[in-house]
Fold this protein.
Amino acid sequence: MTPEVALILGIDGLANGAVYLLAGLGLVLIFSVTRVVFVPFGDVAAFAALSLAALETGKLPATVGLVATLGVLALAVEIRSLVVRGESRRIGRAVLGWGVLPALPCLAAWAIAGRDVPAPLQVTVAVALVVPIIPLVARVALQPIADASVLVLLIASLALHYLLSGLGLLFFGPEGSRTAPLAGGAVSIGGFSVSGQVLLMVGASLVLSGLFFLAFERTVAGKALRATAVNRIGARLVGIRPARTALLAYVCASLLAGLIGILVAPVTTMYYDSGFLIGLKAFVAAIIGGLVSYPLTALGALAVGVVESFASFWSGALKDVIVFSLLIPVLLLRSFFSAHVEEEEEELDE
Amino acid sequence: MTARTRQRALVATVVVAIALAPLVLGKFGVSLLNDIGIASLVALGLVLLTGIGGATSFGQAAFVGIAAYASAWLTTAHGASPWLGLVFALALTGLAALAIGLLTLRLGGHFLPLSTIAWGLSIALLFGNVDAFGRHTGLANVPPLRIGGWSLVEPRAIYYLIWALVGLAFVFNRNLLQSRPGRAIRSLRGGAVLLASVGADAFRVRLTLFVLAALLAGLAGWLYAHMNRFVSPSPFDVRASIEYLLMAVGGGLGQLSGALAGAAVVLLLKNVLQDTLPLLTQRAGQLQAVAFAVIFILLLQHARGGLMGFVRRWTRGRFAAAEVDTAELAGAPPLPRRALPIAGTPILAVSGAVKRFGGLVAVDDVSFDIRAGEIVGLIGPNGAGKSTLFNLLTKTMPMSAGRIEFLGRDVSTLSQRRLARLGMARTFQHVKLRPQMSLLDNVALGAHGRTRAGLVAAGLRLDRGEERRILAEAIRQLERVGLAARAHELAGSLPLGTQRTLEIARALAADPVLLVLDEPAAGLRRQEKLALGELLRTLRGEGVTILIVEHDMDFVMKLVDRLVVMNFGAKLVEGAPAAVRADPRVQAAYLGGAT
């Protein structure tokens, strides 16, 4: 291991860490507002990457079918719950929100598929196409059990992962794809050339994590969002609608997942299940942040990226084992430092 | 038909059906039943660990894998007998579970299940990357089991072994749940403080449960390896763990039979899907995961009690376990009792107790003592620090400074659990009962520190003598507080006031030297308060010392021998009720000073 090799590994690790950072931010965002550990986050990122690949080869992304199906399901569920609650006059607004809005990116994709359009437009449409996915899936699967314990939500979230990755295989097939680079050229730092792509990834993650920190720790609206997760009934009593804050969180997270997908797609071959591993490593980072702190999550993500990079140099096959085994000491430290409020655990079958 | 006969008939029917099945079904059906039997062992462990113990594990398949690989490796690489492989596999699985449990079971809240995902993933990835295990091709030609001269290579042959083991596992666990360690396991969900207050160590109970669940999974792994005679990494990954969890949740996490029901339903469904989906679409294999996920999510949304939850509601509990016949317990010899100290000897001495929360001094240099045979009241206006002092005395919270002596011993650094075993029993301001357990079981939990039956003895039903004595003691305490007639009702169905009285019965079952009560009269009606007062006076007459924290002045003044008044964290006054009542400082504290 020479210093040059170490530096290359380090830069590589930081680039991966930047991706894990964004994913970690999305996971912490969803958890801090809804108490859901959203395991399928990586799957949605993979969808964005595969959609972009499809658009670049002139085909209509299969995501359109996925979003359309989910939209119909969510709309049906929403209408049913409105009718049951006796608020049928809101059906019009529901159709607009849950039916028309998700259809817009689908129409855009249909419009540009097969045509020769500039790359930025393709990227935007690819990201816009996955933005409805997490809110729609959450509306159908998670909102009916939104009051359940973190454990039940975690189990549901794992089931959702298998659902989404199964749908991914169904819609996209088992082949992998890679997209064109987003930022060309290279910059010379200390005698090494760092590609523009890497700089873009690191830069994007730094900017976004700074924004998140400001929004959630320093504004009243951000704190209100976090309050919803701590006590849903209390939030409702002061006029916050938990379903609405959850929706906001899901939309933002979906947007993040889309960005991650298009950032990663040029550097790695993405398959329908590549998202899972990204999600899991981001998950380790989120745990380092205790699922509450954005700055710690960012640091954790960079650490995970660097450790993974060096571990893969030492033993390619065992690198994932090393990264996941690291989770245990992290959890131990976390549990040691956080004041654990003991709550009586509800019966899982009540 | 009595409940006991009904249950026996049900069990007999199931046993006969299982015994006759291979004669009726073809080879495929028997193989499927073998798979169901093996899976139900793992699901049984999950029902115990997650359903009853409250610790969700996403890593059980890893333990199945450890055992399967251990036995397969030993029998193929070293030519050992599969029975030796069983011992090796169980030992290795048990050790792994012990190591993992020691590291991770102290994690609280949702960190524990997250850690199970972590090691579940790591171990599964390890299987596919070690050369000695054949990497991703796995180990083949694992020898079949042999009993005497018979080889169990045919599905019909190994069927009886598998289902005999399943039956034994169910019986062991059913015995376990109806015993002293079983009550502790069923109280895990109530929190560590509840268990510590009766002298049990929640961490040890949870660790034992974790290792038990891992051993059940290990047994399943060994059977798997020698039935299929081939092991590869894929059946032991996180996906398999989630499938086992689905079986447990789908069958019903609340009861042991849920494991069997869930395993049967999930595997049958998988088979049906594998047969019918290809008829519907070409992409059948991919749809199976989707179909399962959808079913799981629907289950979580609408039927969290699982299949057996439905069945239980539908049969209206007609097949529930028979209740203990309390008349039978009359002849049981009583548990040994502590020698209570002579009236007047100091049993609790608090000197200079201080508790700081950052800059706030909640308890400021409080000193008093309690002598045997008296009732002492701790009163004060809201925010005076009574509850904090109470927590310091019962060791729920550590002291910042000061010294506490109990029965002549310095207990300042002792844990809550050890203090409970020394003879201090307490009740809680926010009642900590197990709502799904009967009154009898809740009170019997209080005797945990006085008895010794362990997990193995309980499972093998060697603890019946001690168990009868515990239940007889519980009935005695229930009679003392006037609740004996309702011994078999669920504690959750009681009104709050009665629940507080039940907690006192539980505290009494511990045969305490000092009974520490936290607002026992709150929520009681006048008649109930009178009865409570009478009970406490009777207890004092029998030599039990009582410390009571209360708000109800009327109740306290008529009951106690001495009062300690606190205000702003410090002791204000101490003395007989009449003197305290007349003291101008106390009046100023409660009613405000003269301006």
Remarks:
- Residues 13-237 of chain B form one domain.
